[in-house]
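in:
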C-alpha cells in the first residue's frame, strides 16, 4: 500500500593505536519518526575490548604471526609477460622466417643459387668430363649450356666475362666443319672446369656475408626488444609498514598494483597491510591475487592458512602449480624453437626439422590454450571487511539472506549494474553488491 521498507547498515573499521583494555562508547543515531512527527535517537551499548599486540594474536591453526613482507626489487616474470614489448618480440622470428622464405623463392629459379645451385653445377661438370670422351658435338653443346648457367650463378663481372667469351668460342667450335680431336676437347674441358669452379667460389664468397648479416640482424633485433623492456621497481612499503602506518603502506601498494597488476610482491604486501588494519577480507583478496601469480609461494599459503581461507584459495588454484605468466613464457620459447625448426627446414630441407617443428608448435598451441582457458574462466570474488551481505534479489530493500564469510569465495554468474549474482560453495545462488567484494 505504498509503504517502502528497508535496512541501512553503517560500518566502520576501528584500528586500535595501543594495546590493553579499551571501551568503545555508545554510538547514537538520530532519525525522524513520521508517525509521531518528531525526532528520535537510537544508541548502542558501550563495548569493552581487550587489544593484544599483533605478534600475539592466536589463530585456530596455531600460527601466531604473518609471514614477513617482501622488500627490494619484485619478480619480473609476470611483469615481463604483461609488457607490450613481450608480444612485439614474438613477431621477430616470424618476420625473419618470411624474409628467408621470400629470399629462397626469389633465387629458386636460378640453377646456381645457393649451395644446391653450386652442387648442381659441379655435378653437371662431372658429366661434362665424362662426355669429353664421347661425341664431340654433344660435349660442346653441354659445355655451352653449363657456361650459361655458371654466368647466371655469379655476380662477379670478370667471371661472367670469362663465361661469355668461352661460351662464344665453344659454340663456334661446335659448328666447325672439322671437330677437334680428343686432346683439344680435354683442354677445353679443363678450361670449362676452371671457369665453373671460379663461379662457384665467387658465389660462396657472396653468400657467407649474407648469412652472417642475417644472424647478426636477428640477434640485434632480439636484444633491442629485450633491452627496451624495463620494469619499474615496486614501492617499498617496509618503512611505513614497520612503523605501523599500515594505511599509508596500503595506499601506496594500491597505486602500485593498479600500475603493475603482475607484481606479486605488491599484492602480497597489500594483503599483509590490510590484515594489520583489521580488514581480513581485503587481506585474503590481496593474497589470492599474489597466489595467482606465484602458485608455489609458501608465504602466501601460510597467510591464507592463518585466516582459514582454504575455500577461497581453491577458487584460484589449478591442478598443477604453474602460473599464467610461466605458461606464456613457455609458449614464447616453443614459438621461437618452432620457427627455428621451420627455418632449418627451409634452408636445409631436413625432415627431422619439420617433425620437431610440428611437435614444438603443438606444445606452443597447448600452452596458449591453457593461458586462454584461465583468463576466460568464470570470475570469482571474495568479501571485503569481515564479510559481505547476500540478498535474494539485486536490491537492498529487503533483509539479507546470509553472508559471504571471510575465507569463502563465490563464482560470478551474472552482472547487473552494481550487483553480482554468485554461486556459493554450497551451490546456492545469491546477489551481492560489487563494492562489498573483490574480484579475482
Amino acid at each position: 500500500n505504498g509503504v517502502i521498507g528497508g535496512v541501512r547498515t553503517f560500518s566502520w573499521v576501528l584500528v586500535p593505536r595501543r594495546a590493553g583494555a579499551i571501551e568503545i562508547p555508545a554510538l547514537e543515531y538520530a532519525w525522524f519518526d513520521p508517525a509521531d512527527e518528531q525526532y528520535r535517537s537510537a544508541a548502542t551499548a558501550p563495548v569493552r575490548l581487550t587489544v593484544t599486540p599483533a605478534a600475539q594474536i592466536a589463530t585456530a591453526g596455531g600460527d601466531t604471526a604473518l609471514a614477513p613482507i617482501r622488500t627490494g626489487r619484485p619478480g619480473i616474470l609476470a611483469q615481463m609477460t604483461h609488457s607490450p614489448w613481450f608480444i612485439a618480440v614474438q613477431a621477430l622470428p616470424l618476420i625473419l622466417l618470411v624474409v628467408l622464405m621470400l629470399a629462397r623463392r626469389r633465387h629458386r629459379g636460378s640453377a646456381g643459387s645457393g649451395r644446391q645451385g653450386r652442387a648442381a653445377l659441379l655435378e653437371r661438370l662431372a658429366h661434362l668430363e665424362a662426355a669429353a670422351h664421347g661425341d664431340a658435338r654433344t660435349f660442346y653443346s653441354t659445355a655451352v649450356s653449363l657456361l650459361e648457367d655458371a654466368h647466371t650463378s655469379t655476380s662477379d663481372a670478370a667471371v661472367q666475362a670469362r663465361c661469355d667469351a668461352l661460351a662464344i668460342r665453344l659454340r663456334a667450335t661446335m659448328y666447325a666443319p672439322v671437330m677437334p680431336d680428343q686432346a683439344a676437347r680435354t683442354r677445353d674441358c679443363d678450361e670449362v672446369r676452371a671457369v665453373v669452379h671460379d663461379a662457384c667460389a665467387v658465389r660462396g664468397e657472396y653468400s657467407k656475408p649474407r648469412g652472417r648479416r642475417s644472424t647478426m640482424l636477428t640477434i640485434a633485433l632480439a636484444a633491442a626488444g629485450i633491452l627496451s623492456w624495463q620494469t619499474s621497481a615496486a614501492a617499498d612499503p617496509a618503512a611505513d609498514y614497520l612503523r605501523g602506518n599500515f594505511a599509508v603502506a596500503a595506499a601506496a601498494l594500491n597505486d602500485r598494483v593498479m600500475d603493475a597488476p603482475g607484481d606479486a610482491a605488491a599484492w602480497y604486501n597489500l594483503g599483509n597491510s590490510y590484515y594489520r588494519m583489521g580488514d581480513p577480507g581485503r587481506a585474503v583478496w590481496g593474497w589470492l591475487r599474489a597466489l595467482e601469480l606465484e602458485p608455489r609461494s609458501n608465504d602466501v599459503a601460510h597467510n591464507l592458512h592463518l585466516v582459514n581461507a582454504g575455500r577461497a584459495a581453491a577458487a584460484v588454484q589449478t591442478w598443477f602449480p604453474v602460473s599464467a605468466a610461466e605458461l606464456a613464457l613457455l609458449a614464447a620459447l616453443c614459438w621461437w624453437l618452432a620457427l627455428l625448426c621451420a627455418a632449418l627446414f627451409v634452408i636445409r630441407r631436413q625432415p627431422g626439422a619439420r617433425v620437431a617443428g610440428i611437435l614444438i608448435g603443438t606444445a606452443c598451441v597447448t600452452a596458449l590454450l591453457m593461458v586462454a582457458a584461465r583468463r576466460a574462466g568464470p570470475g570469482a570474488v571474495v568479501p571485503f571487511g569481515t564479510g559481505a551481505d547476500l540478498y535474494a534479489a539485486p536490491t537492498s530493500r529487503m533483509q539479507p539472506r546470509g553472508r559471504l564469510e571471510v575465507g569463502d569465495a563465490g563464482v560470478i554468474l551474472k552482472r547487473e549494474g552494481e550487483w553480482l549474482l554468485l554461486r556459493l560453495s554450497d551451490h546456492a545462488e545469491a546477489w551481492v553488491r560489487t563494492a562489498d567484494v573483490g574480484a579475482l
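note: The longest strand covers residues 410-416.
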